[in-house]
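Quick start: what a row looks like.
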Amino acid sequence: MNDALNGVSVRDALLHDYEITRVPAAMVKAAADRCADGALGQLSGADLNKFVHGMDVLDFVRRYPIAKFCGADLALLKKLPPRLYSISSSPKAYPGEVHLCVGIVRTEFGGRPRKGVCSTFLADRVPTDTTVPVFVHHNKNFRPPSDSSIPMIMVGPGTGIAPFRAFLEERRAVGAKGRNWLFFGDQHAATDFLYRDEIESMQREGSLARLDVAFSRDQAEKIYVQQRMLEHARELFTWLEDGAHFYVCGDASRMAKDVDRALHQVIELAGGRTTEQAAEYVRQLSAAKRYQRDVY
């Protein structure tokens, strides 16, 4: 495994160029062919995803030693993709700076510790004052309304709060008159209330008109942001009727879907709409670019 590939050692290629925390389909197919494993070769779609779930490349190589993977098999791996983080600061509040809100991933699987590729790179392995490669990905619609008098409703649990800290800083810096309402949630208030001092300061000074939080593990019954939305359905619908823009940032697999479902329920309950009418209401919000999501 120390052979060089195009002048780059296999070690350096695995460290810097290839995705090794997930097992690609091409590697599974190669193992099936080399091991004459028909069942492995038949895996596809959801079954394949379930089979490789939690495994990294090292796990797979150890599981199929007869496949004799070597340096030339780097071609089976996918190139290391960029990690996208929402900017959590306004250039008006912090000229010349860009802030990120990074959740460090540390887990264990199969008796081995696992680490998030980029999160632990930034947290553990980048020396102070070191330059790292970045690029800017633009989302032209996910930004505060151009009319600063328009209200904003922001739903950002966990690190999904990142862009909304920037939104609030921006509006405070320009003296925006529009009301701002933030829904934030995580597991424990004592340890997981990100930017707490800043957010509560904005609430005290009035630049954040409303703050509703949901800490799922601080009581026997788990509570999430979508439940807070339903608890305040009447006022939330009033804000929408007043022209508020509705933003969601964070987990796409569950949270964003639950929040979308809650939004439809708010419109049904507080707006007196049928299910079909609520769906049309949400479609109109989206068409007017008043319902924006930054989910991952």
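That is the whole record. Residues 4-76 form one domain. The CA atoms of residues 240 and 246 lie 8 Å apart.
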